[in-house]
Every structure is written in structure tokens, then in C-alpha cells.
Amino acid sequence: MDEITLKKQLLDIQNEESTGKDYDQQELLDAMMEHIGSPDPELRDGLIYRQFSQIIHYDDQLSDDVLIDLLTKALGDEYLFYEIGDVGTDNIFKRSFSVLLIALILSKDLERSFLSLPLLEKVRAELLLYLDLEQDLRGYVPEKGWAHSVAHTADAIDEVVKNPKLKVQHFSAIYQALVNKVFTFADVYVADEDERLLTPIMKMLEIGLPPEIVEELFTKIPSFLKQQKDKIDEEKYWRLYANCKSFLKSFYICTSSNEKWALIQQRIGRCLDEI
Fold first, then answer.
1. What is the pLDDT of residues 195-211, one digit of tens each?
2. What is the distance between the alpha carbons of residues 185 and 231, in angstroms, rounded to a whole number?
3. Can you tell me the distance from the alpha carbon of 202 to that of 216, in angstroms, rounded to the nearest whole number?
4. Per-residue 3-state assignment (H helix, E strand, C coil) for 15-56
5. Contact 11, 48 (CB under 8 A)
6. Spatial separation of the C-alpha atoms in residues 66 and 159, rounded to whole Å
7. Backbone dihedral angles phi then psi of residue 39, each to the nearest 5 degrees
8. Are 92 and 147 in contact (CB under 8 A)?
9. What is the pLDDT of residues 94-133, one digit of tens each?
10. DSSP bridge pairs for 140
11. Is the overall model pTM greater than 0.85, yes or no?
């Protein structure tokens, strides 16, 4: 199905001129997957993603088997890892919106627990690998809408860490992967990426991530920045510094909401003073 036909069908459904039942469900799902990374923001974000959200969450139309099939497909080389490593092309939309579909399915699993532990473990591992490999860090792309790969991946990881089937022993590695994405000089985060990265971190702290693992980071940042200042050119250094400082400030605010994070907040405050 081409984009024009798909767009018309989804607009009809959204405008209640028809229901999804008026179309062959599998054909519609296949078309939505085919065009999930369309550079047309209305089709990609306003229609395809919105329809996935509607049928998965609100209408509860898809069976466990269909959701597992969609999840398996979204995790593959033609979706989550499609042309991984390239920067500045439209391929980012296919990767980043595959992540959003993964997040929707993970969220549904919290309601009815249809994912096996091995599959959940695979999702965890693939999301962390994708977060590490993704180099296109753009937030909003003029005329084409949101790419936001880092924020989308943080959202999906948040759904993973909330899942009671996941072992707490994985939290340390997940935390490190999230933090690693902060320390980049490839671009400056300007679209709340730091806050989105902090959402699963705060959730893990609530569930069982040892605070001392989190606190250890703040003792290393000042010396790390000093070392990087001597190694990389000035422009890259100030991008790195900006991302680091923004993350620390957001973390400081997050930890102010509960007295049990007072020590972490103090450590963050000292770290900010030192840098």
C-alpha cells in the first residue's frame, strides 16, 4: 500500500468516517510498518503512531501473538537497526519510531503480561545496543517533525525497568547505558532529552538500583571533564560540558522531590560546584 492510500485510510479512521474494522487488519498493520519511518510528520507521527497507540492501548484490538510479531519485527535490522550509524538522513525516523512502537507493546505487557522473560531480556539487550549505536541525536527536524531517538529510547527503557519480570540485577548496566548517552559531544541536547533519560533512572532508584552506584558517577565527572578538555577541541568540549551540566541540573531537581534522595542531591550539588 502506498503512502497516499494509507494516509487516506488512517484519516478516515481518525475522523470516524470508518472504523479499523472496515479494513483488513493485517494489511493495515503491514502498511503502517512499511511506512513507520515516513518523513511526512503527519503520516508518521499524527496518523501511524497515533493509530498504533489507539489499537494497542485504548481499543485493545491486537492479540498477544500479533503484538509479539510486531515487537519481533520492530527489533530487527530493517527497523530498529535500519542503516544504523548514519547521521542526518531520513532513516532516523524509521529507527526512532520503531522504538516508540516497542515502548507501546512493552507498556501493554504491564497490563496483561504476554511477553516471555527471554523475549523481555532480548528487548532490554537490543534497546541498550541501539542506544549505544545510535549517532543521530537530532530532536526536532524542521519540516519533518520529531526524530528524538534518545528520548524515545529512554521511554522504551522506562517501560522495561517497570516490568516486574525483569531482574533488578540488570539495573546497574541499564543505568550506565543511559548515562553514557549523556556524555556526548556529537550534538547538544535541547529537547528535554536529559529529563527523559532520567525517568527510567528515577524509576530504577525507586525499585532497587543501589544509590551508591548512582553516587559514584558524581565523583568521576569533574576529573572526566578535565581530561576531555585536554583531549578534544574546544567546540566539542563545550558541547560535552553543556550536556553534562544540563543532566546534572535536571537530576538535582528530580532528587528534590523526596527526602530519601537527599544524599544523592548533595553529591550532585558538589559535583556542579566542582565543574
1. 999 999 999 999 999 99
2. 12
3. 16
4. CCCCCHHHCCHHHHHHHHHHCCCCCCHHHHHHHHHHHHHHHH
5. no
6. 19
7. -70, -10
8. yes
9. 999 999 999 999 999 999 999 999 999 999 999 999 999 9
10. 146
11. yes
